[in-house]
Design brief:
102 residues, Alpha-Beta Plaits, globular, homotrimer
């Protein structure tokens, strides 16, 4: 089984709506199994865009992190599903051993 | 070393008390080492039970995520310890290389 | 690529300032790529120091978790960078397959 982890900004949009909501809805529609959304307190990525207004004061664009656990096949399908969605975020997969699924 | 990750709902109960508190207390009693509890902002699992009242409005049953890092032997003992506890949650392990432990 | 995960307490200090801010600033200065900071709701580590005043009431010293995703070489450099910083925290690395980086 695979863990898919997607990092994006709270303010990232897709078709005018929050991108993380789009991703979570697609995950639901495609029947993905273990989906969890976290909010981070700060972060920065490839483009050095810091998700805080200055380094240690509050900003409105905080990191959102989505974790999905499913079979390698379904994770692969889901990656294809979102590969044309543009955002300045990190996406990785990792191997996990599922002990219990629901 | 292993990372054990347990996903459950804030409202899941064990003997009338919050399940996550039971799990964390057992981890403490058994001398597990790196134990961290997160609260997610939304999630859904195997049974398609969404941890939000409707997709994007607030619900009281938010995801709780517990991470425990310890030796393979102790993680195995801990999995046995909670395997009879019923909840609609995901549990996985993954390999990690510990650089520093406390 | 590697995931580096650092667990510490919100109150841990380095040169009189919050340790997590020092670590995040060094990560930024060294050009690390995917850096995300989370706040946990409770935790305990090697020294059995519980990051809550008693087991289930609020405490001011909550866990802070830093995730950094970068190449094995840069993660190695960063581990060297922080290895002389003293704190009661857990540090591990894990293998990840990066699908997209910014």
């Amino acid at each position: 089984m695979k863990l898919l982890k997607i990092y994006l900004g709270e303010k990232d949009k897709y078709s005018g709506k929050p991108l993380f909501e789009f991703i979570v809805k697609r995950a639901y529609e495609l029947g993905m199994k273990g989906v969890t959304v976290y909010r981070g307190v700060m972060g920065f990525g490839h483009k050095r865009h810091i998700h805080r207004s200055d380094f240690f004061s509050l900003s409105p664009d905080l990191p959102i992190i989505i974790e999905i656990v499913d079979s390698e096949e379904k994770i692969h399908v889901f990656i294809k599903e979102i590969e044309n969605v543009e955002f300045d975020g990190l996406v990785f997969t990792a191997d996990v051993d599922v002990i219990r699924m629901g």
